[in-house]
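writing this on my phone so excuse typos. first protein, seq and then structure
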Amino acid sequence: MELRNTIETLCRAPGISGWEKNASMAALNLLKPYAPNAEIDAFQNVLGVVRLAEEGKPTVLLDAHIDEIGMIVTHVDAKGFLKVASCGGMDRRLVLGQEVSVYGRKELHGVIAAMPPHLTSSEDGAKVPEIEQILIDVGMEKDEVKKVVALGDRVSIRSDFHSMLGSRVASRALDDRCCVAVILRTLELLQDEKLDCGLSVMFTTQEETGERGAEIAGYRLKPDIAVALDVSFAHTPDADEYKCGKMGKGPMIGMAPSLDRKISAEFVRLAEEKGIPYQTEVMGGTTGTNADAIGTLCGGVRMGLLSVPLKYMHTPIEMIDLADCEAAAQLLAAYLSEVGKGE
């Protein structure tokens, strides 16, 4: 598979939390070659069993979330402007003046209203509005708008998929579509290999609003071991270096009280043995990812976490290095090749 094209296909499919159907369908079509019985459940999670475990062998579950941040329509005012609330952690510092897509009965192109600086005081110009204070203009009067847009419809900031210098790309929804692609690449690497474990995959919904999809899908699949794949902070000049990973230096291996120490150590060992670049990410409590939800299911699941370094999280210009995605897939494939041996 062409990793860049797969990520672009996934990022172009809208899938705001609670309305992931288009993104879920795109992911399902890409998963089917590896798990022909894969399906979308009632919660819009994508579930697939790649290999059943033999008796006495563990089942490993791979997870990445399919939803993205966005907004939800809460009101249409007397002049036809839309008011919205946030679905996930939208960065409100950058919403004014943005183009948006409104997913009503048909997709509408809108803009987020911004008062000209000539008409604002210096004090007002320095304020960052709450998401609930912004107005979206779709160029219609109220009666026209209400024929197309209903309360509860989702909204996303419009953003194209861009190739940057080297192997870097930028887009909205790279959190966490790039990790969906990492899992698909892992399955491709293992396609002709006999594993000593069962293997299941889930691309889960509503992570950005509380990890609910992972709880539902994970409970259904009942793994013994699970690895969550997500993004984490890549270093930028305005951030503390010790809090971040570095792009192009490999995936970040999670280490936290909520994660299985042996799995983290195994990732480190394999990376060093096979010359796969890696970084570590140490957290003092929970991880803020689906790993927190999956690890407590079904009496407890041994949990690992791999993260792709990403710049500008929760903006329309998120950026990753494809080399980190490939390294994550290589490391994950190496780990799965050894699970279950000797058991």
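second protein below, same order as before
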Amino acid sequence: MDDVPTSEDGEAPVETVSFPFDRMTVQRFRKTFPRARWSDTLRAWTVPGKTARRRIECWLAREAARADVFAAEKGRDAYAFEPILSPYLDVIKTGFRIRTPYSRRVVDELRQVPFARWNGELRAWEVPFASYDELQHRWDAIEAAAKRAEPEERRKRTEARKGSEDEAKARRRSAERRRRRLPVPAGNLPPLERPVATAAYGIVVVTGVTGEIIDPDPVAEFYPDAGHEHIWATWRPPTLNELIHTWPVKTVAGENERKRGWWQPTIEELREARRTARSRERRQAR
């Protein structure tokens, strides 16, 4: 069951956490989270429960505070010798606070920094002094992505695309996406009401098959592998709960599966889809 991101009863949602290994840290973690299990597939610990994410963040904050005092001092010295000078970074008592416009690249980079954590109340990332070396190693990528995500930069790119073929393509693609349809082989249909990975739209839930045969020429721009043997299916975005309870496959889809247009997702594909679904559901809740 460690390969599946669900609790032992198969119902409760599960959160994952990873941290630098040492015996004492693992002992403290297991004492705080007795139901936690190690997943070789995820390369992370899984913690069940609806409040798991909040409890994990509190534990990470405590661990960061008790990190090796010498590592923290080393981080302070490294910052003093070669500081990161950026409007996105502030020095706080325990380390650094990072605020940037939303960027998936920024999030992905910060997730790789040991003991970095998201402070939901302040809407900022916090990184302890002990993790300064890794933060510095990733900062160029973080700052470049943050600058690209600034509203003014987005506006400039939008203005530059106006009237261009790129803008026209983007409009056509958006219009096609709103139709919520997907070409699937008539002789090899995806399962209904279960998340599947697709080449066109990531992980979706196929809700039905219309039976309408596709004319491939008008839609070749969006579905280059679609042919006369394909028919239209309808789809919707998956819920977070559906993604959590989807069993991942261990092998990446091959060329034939990708040409088919759909395949069973791997854990890496599911992780990305879960993050997207979690953000979408939080926005809807607000």
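Residues 1-11 have pLDDT under 50 and may be disordered. thats all i got for now
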